[in-house]
Amino acid sequence: MNSRIRIALLQLLAREKKVNIHQKAEEYITEAANNGAKLAILPELFTTECHPPVFTEKKEDIPQGETCQLMSHLAKKHSMHIIAGSIAEKIKGSEKMKNTSAVFNPKGELVGKYTKMHSFDVDLGERMSIHESEWFEHGNKPLTFNTDVCKVGVGICIDLRFPEVSRYYTEQGCLLHVYLGAFSKERTGPAHWDVLLRARAIDNQVYVAACSPATDPTHHYVAWGHSAVVDPWGNIISQAEGEEALVYADLDMNYLKKVRGQLPVENIRRKDLYHLTYNW
């Protein structure tokens, strides 16, 4: 197995027309592939802005919908894995949706779907009162998949706040944890984004990659941007600002092993005193 992989995070603006979003995503994925990336990661709800009327208008089937069909085609064309951000997924017979990510392998095959486990139901003041559970059904299962270099675990946005999720992925051997998130520019982004990414990386001695939509002040909900990759020591090794951007990072599993060897948290862990129980 190889020890290195280049990944690319596509910090995209949500455009009014889905065809324009698809065109920009294809442009960035092609550029990333030409620059040696073997894993492309798109943002949370990248085909819509974070606003309920837009979710409802642009929701899709997974994997039969047009966005997943494009991602499957591009994964096969460029022989790479693609984590297709998250999409407002239709639920048959329901007005509600799921916030779901689809993952495609280098053959263009769907290797799995992940639906956001935790609902962002918060009241942080007049301009930050959100109740996602009114629109989205939550998921109940994690998702892992293998690349040629490492195993990967996937989460969406507020899932990042729950160390139990990342701990499970570590126990399953995931050396890269990927989060698709749209923290807010006004409140949670500047306060918590970097801190949580670094904490999950340090807690688990893994690489953490987090892909956000770009900042658009004209949107009802303004995303923070600042897509980033953190190494197992907690260093931010690559990061965007707010604008639309393509962010690269080279991950080295030998470096990860070195960090774990120097600070052997797993050997020190008191498994005789505590453990987590999962119900999925």
From TrEMBL:
Source organism's superkingdom?
Answer: Eukaryota
Its top-level enzyme class, in one word, is hydrolase
Where in the numbering of this chain does the CN hydrolase domain appear?
Answer: 5-253
Q: Which UniProt keywords apply?
A: Hydrolase
- Would I find Hydrolase among this entry's keywords? yes
Q: Does the keyword Hydrolase apply?
A: yes
The biological processes this protein is annotated with in GO are:
asparagine metabolic process; glutamine metabolic process; oxaloacetate metabolic process
Q: Which residues cross the membrane?
A: none
Instruction: Give GO MF terms, alphabetically.
Output: omega-amidase activity
InterPro entries linked to this entry: C-N_Hydrolase, C-N_Hydrolase_sf, Nit1/2_C-N_Hydrolase
Listed SUPFAM superfamilies: Carbon-nitrogen hydrolase (SSF56317)
State the GO CC annotations.
Answer: mitochondrion
| EC number(s) on file | 3.5.1.3
Q: Which Pfam families match?
A: CN_hydrolase
Q: Which PROSITE patterns match?
A: CN_HYDROLASE
Protein's recorded name: omega-amidase
Upper classification of the source organism reads: Eukaryota, Metazoa, Spiralia, Lophotrochozoa, Mollusca
